[in-house]
Specification:
heterodimer, A: alpha/beta, TIM Barrel, five-stranded parallel beta sheet, 11 helices, 8 strands, about 35% helix, B: alpha/beta, seven-stranded parallel beta sheet, globular
Chain lengths: ~270, ~280
Amino acid sequence: MIDVNTLIGPYPFRYVPHPDPEVLVRVLDREGIDAAWVGHLPSAFYRDPTPGNRELFARLSAFSDRLLPAPAIRPDWPKWESALSSAANSGAVAIRVYPPQWGLGPHDASLRELAVAAGEQGMATLLTVRFEDLRQRHSMDSAGDLSAAAIRSLARAGDAVRLVVTAAGREMIEEVHWGLTPDEQRRVFWDISWIWGPPEDHLAKLFRTIGSERFVFGTQWPLRLTQTPSANLDLLPDDLLGAPLADARTICAAAARNPVPTTPSR
Amino acid sequence: MTSGQASSLVEPLIDAHAHFYHADAGRADWADVNAARFRAGERMGITYHVASVLGSYGFSSPTYFPSPADVSHGNDAMLEICDREPDRVRMFVTVNPNYTDHALGEIERCAARGAIGIKLLASRRADDRLLDPVATVAAERGLPMLHHIWQHRRREWPSQEISDGADLARLACRHPRANFILAHIGGGGDYMHTFPAVVDCPNIYPDLSGSGVDRGMLDEAVQALGANRLLWGCDLTMCTGLAKLHALEVIGLGAEDMSAIRWRNAARIFPDGSFPRCQ
């Protein structure tokens, strides 16, 4: 099991307890999770993510067998192509992009170009729908949620694209999925960190309609309780217990190359 | 990975914030949703669901501003569920305090049939004087009042007349003999505002329910208020309820504190004998 949605570093709008890689490794051990894709939380709010990426690689270097870097690449920043190649050469499994925080609209051409280029270099593009519930956001946190239109636009950008969309709920997932062709649908994976379980049973409904193989395990640590997606899987109806999620190792070539332990996914 | 059932297998577990639906709630899958709550409850080890029905859930009057007719119809549906499931369901009687006589009549009617608490939505600000007659009766009868809360009210939001911890604290101070359950610290808004707002009101018991699962929320709640002030609950998302149970087990709580949150606090503030399977 791989947690595709973790971060290190502080969050600008509220205190987050010990968002550090050594703590994350202990959490993975406690929860029985093999490895994690890790981003740098402050970089979502930096204009230039370059220093954040340097810090990410440096802080993860001691845990390279468990914590796999997912640096932020900003496609409207000069020399983003070399930043992308550098990320690939440094062992990144995915890149993180934050269109709302960077003021990039749903049909931004540079984002589409970046997603294709990342895919061609074997890396997934990881999107974050939200960091916090709308109802609790700081008055300065005005970026808004990532839109379904933005996800559809990226999914349609090309065959090489592999998207991992985190922190989406049922309505957004359905809006995107059924707005794509079957080929485009196969380019998109959804983490389950924000999907409701019983009694509404959104996760179960999505497994039945879209298929569990379109979903990956993600927690959004350190912002959210690591136990939530596991609890959600544990509360699925009997006939869906043990439904296989997508194996994060198979999403993209960079993930497949990574020598992470191979405990079977649930 | 964690198991579906909370690990304290022998301990009772009371969900102090649950809801059920009925045929006139405007959704075709109402019975499936109710069944899913029982299914998940069995797997989690919930001993009692303390639940309410919120009128017609918007079908014939707004969820948070239910008409008197919808309030009564919803309470009837909740009474029927209690009659069908006496071993695992208890009832909050829902009221709209804008209709004082109707609200007091519903409390009397449903308490006579076994309701053990009162549910207030967001039909009137919590500190409004119109809530005083309801709180007075709640104190007289020993029925805790579960009040829908928005954690830190910074502006008006549509479809609700929201209240926050500070609003509820003013009501609780006027009625020190009544007990109040502050709804869902994970149900939206900034819970870090709630804790200091209610810390000096020992008759306010926040419940942990809601879809919000921010890391640090539970730790801060325990630190600010103590385990004896907190009630476990799920509201609309039982997966987050289970996650919070597992999280409570790893933040360093002792066995007594876990018991307090799981069921003992609820057993203490609801009327004596409400939970015979927890004795």
